[in-house]
Amino acid sequence: MTQHTVSRATFDDVMVPNYNPPSIIPVRGEGSRLWDQEGREYIDFAGGIAVNVLGHHHPALVKALKEQADKVWHLSNVFTNEPALQLAQMLTERTFADRVFFCNSGAEANEAAFKLVRKYAHDHFSPDKHEIIAFNQAFHGRTLFTVSVGGQAKYREGFEPVPGGITHVPYNDIEALRAAISERTCAVVMEPIQGEGGVIPANPDFARAVRELCDQHQALLVFDEVQTGVGRTGNLYAYEELGVTPDILTSAKALGGGFPIGAMLTRSEIAASFSFGTHGTTYGGNPLGCAVAKAVLEVVDTPEVLSGVKRKQQLFVDRLQAINARYHCFNEVRSAGLLIGAELSEPWQGQAAKFLAAARELGLMMLIAGPNVLRMTPSLIIPDEDIHVGMDLLEQAVATVLEVEQAG
């Protein structure tokens, strides 16, 4: 057997214990398959949590990274660079936005957005117009500001006092928002589809009404598209299909296809409030990240890839419904493109981690969205064969969990 210099036990020796990874350590990937230290093969339905939008080791991304690595890696925000400018041009040409701010992650993109909405309101109205409204079960990142805007108390506990001036209301409940919004509201922040909250899509009528309320109260509308952006739903960004245009959009995860990069997109009149020196980041707009993200957009934003998302979505949904017809394990299967959530039925509520572990043991990597929802965010170009093989493994995992429980 191969001797490894590090193992899962090393994690406990040297890493802060804020994660609890399984015993396996993946070491190689190709397409939608991964191999661990022991050579075991896995079908990847997790996609790095909606990041590996083109799978592992995609030739266009590898080529872009290698070519840029031979030129310049880092310049800081003292200088601009060609890949950052080219990527910004691509994003503004393909979206509603006129201006782009680059950073390193979704949390940083949201942090920038939340600072900008307050700065814009301060510049154009008054310091009193500073309140942000967000939604229960939302997730916007792990900085102190973003966990405060996020609608899950468990991520704020122990870190108080947190920033104030933030209100949470139920998602898809326009009357609750109508009761909360006021002239003091500077922004409403929402995910077009709540990912971490359980794969809950916004009702289109709700989204349109949110836009109208923001306009009535001169509040900005921020769409957090960190998980839904860059082709995940079958459009480049999910707002296109909703038919609702935000004032600010945040993007990360799939934007770099695995290389860390985030972006905040907005209109020029709003961007003007981030005048010289008001916000910054050392690594944001890194030439390596921007070069890879350019390659991601060139591949993803094509009719072939985007139309394929919807077709592959149906393959997942059909197989999940077939599993449910046999085992009655799901209350509901929710999906938007290749962001898919299967909510466990009542006998299995709170036990999503059991299904996750059973699937991994059989060679399938998936995710959960809370304790009740199995989540899948695979590569947008995952081969149909890998979908079927992975679903066969999931069915075996479901059968295994049910058998164990019945035996116990």
From TrEMBL:
It is found in: Cytoplasm. GO terms for molecular function: transaminase activity. The modification N6-(pyridoxal phosphate)lysine is found at K253. SUPFAM superfamilies: PLP-dependent transferases. It is an enzyme of class 2 (transferase). InterPro entries: Ac/SucOrn_transaminase_bac, AcOrn/SuccOrn_fam, Aminotrans_3, Aminotrans_3_PPA_site, Class-III_PLP-dep_AT, PyrdxlP-dep_Trfase, PyrdxlP-dep_Trfase_major, PyrdxlP-dep_Trfase_small. HAMAP family: ArgD_aminotrans_3. Belongs to the class-III pyridoxal-phosphate-dependent aminotransferase family. ArgD subfamily. May also have succinyldiaminopimelate aminotransferase activity, thus carrying out the corresponding step in lysine biosynthesis. This is Acetylornithine aminotransferase.
